Structure formats: C-alpha cells, structure tokens
Amino acid sequence: MSNEIINVWNDMNGRLTNFVNGKVKDSELAKDIVQDVFLKAFSKIDTLKNKEKLVPWIYQITRNEITSHFRKIKFNTSSKEVEAEELSNETLTSELTHCLNPFINSLPEKYKEAIILADIKNIPQKEIAKRLSISYSGVKSRVQRGREMLKSNYEECCAISTDVYGDVLDYKVKK
C-alpha cells in the first residue's frame, strides 16, 4: 500500500496544493498543509477500510487539515463568512464545469435548451414550461433526460468520484 500512496502523492500533489491554496490563500502554507496531509495519510493508511476510496479519503483528510489550520489561528470571521468564502472558492466541481459546454452542445436541441435554462440560467421549471409552451411534466422529463445524457457522456470521458452531496472529490480523464 505504501507504493500506492507514493503514486497517489505524485498524482495528486499539484491538485491538492491548488485546492488548499484556494482555501488558505498562501502558497507556502498550502504546501505545508499538503505535506501534513500525506504524512497523516501515510501513517494512518492501515485505518482505511476500503482501499478503493483512497483518493476521497485523502481529500477528507485535506479538508480536516484546512479546518484544523483555521482553528489553530483562531480565525476571526463568522461561520457564515467562512461558508460563503468556501462556496465561492474553486473546487474540483468547478474545475470540471468548463468541460461541460461541449457536452451540452452535443445534446439534441430540446434537451440542450432545457438544461441551459434549468441548470445554467437557474430558471424554475414552471417558468421554462411557460416559455417553451409545454407542460411542466414535459419540462421535468426533458431536464431529467438531458442530465442523464450529460452524465452518460461525461462518464465515457472521465472517471469521477463524488461525496454524498455530489461534490467532486477526484476525477481522471479516461484514456
């Protein structure tokens, strides 16, 4: 397993450093935190029950280390400010969003239009039904089918690991 953690280190070091730097806004501190993450991962690898979850596990350790860092320095902002900042920071999910346009453009027109209106422009589906002069259930079906088509196309391209909330923990382009 130690070889696997070394391979993961080589694979993920840059992405984790960018991820942490987006949170702490200090590149040297980010490198230190990432080093702590891998030290912790290496020393606790025997506690990992499902070895296939190594990468998501490392991201969880990373998030915990970031939280621990802010606790240590007694971060002086309210939890609402921290949450807002976390939401605005770039994550793996937002890294992948730039890849979506070609997939959306490849959809049949009626599904493409439904996805753009519902998921990109955030227009309520009832409003979309009025705009397109179709039933509400018709819009729901188009959006759902469009999402399924996008997911299918995306999964052909990339292997994506998500957490229980649907946030991307890791991705790799399939070759």
From TrEMBL:
<dbReference type="InterPro" id="IPR013325">
    <property type="entry name" value="RNA_pol_sigma_r2"/>
</dbReference>
<dbReference type="Pfam" id="PF04542">
    <property type="entry name" value="Sigma70_r2"/>
</dbReference>
<dbReference type="InterPro" id="IPR036388">
    <property type="entry name" value="WH-like_DNA-bd_sf"/>
</dbReference>
<dbReference type="Pfam" id="PF08281">
    <property type="entry name" value="Sigma70_r4_2"/>
</dbReference>
<keyword id="KW-0804">Transcription</keyword>
<dbReference type="InterPro" id="IPR007627">
    <property type="entry name" value="RNA_pol_sigma70_r2"/>
</dbReference>
<feature type="domain" description="RNA polymerase sigma-70 region 2">
    <location>
        <begin position="15"/>
        <end position="72"/>
    </location>
</feature>
<dbReference type="InterPro" id="IPR013324">
    <property type="entry name" value="RNA_pol_sigma_r3/r4-like"/>
</dbReference>
<keyword id="KW-0805">Transcription regulation</keyword>
<dbReference type="InterPro" id="IPR014304">
    <property type="entry name" value="RNA_pol_sigma-Z"/>
</dbReference>
<dbReference type="InterPro" id="IPR039425">
    <property type="entry name" value="RNA_pol_sigma-70-like"/>
</dbReference>
<feature type="domain" description="RNA polymerase sigma factor 70 region 4 type 2">
    <location>
        <begin position="104"/>
        <end position="150"/>
    </location>
</feature>
<dbReference type="InterPro" id="IPR013249">
    <property type="entry name" value="RNA_pol_sigma70_r4_t2"/>
</dbReference>
<dbReference type="InterPro" id="IPR014284">
    <property type="entry name" value="RNA_pol_sigma-70_dom"/>
</dbReference>
<protein>
    <recommendedName>
        <fullName>RNA polymerase sigma factor SigZ</fullName>
    </recommendedName>
</protein>
<comment type="similarity">
    <text>Belongs to the sigma-70 factor family. ECF subfamily.</text>
</comment>
<keyword id="KW-0731">Sigma factor</keyword>
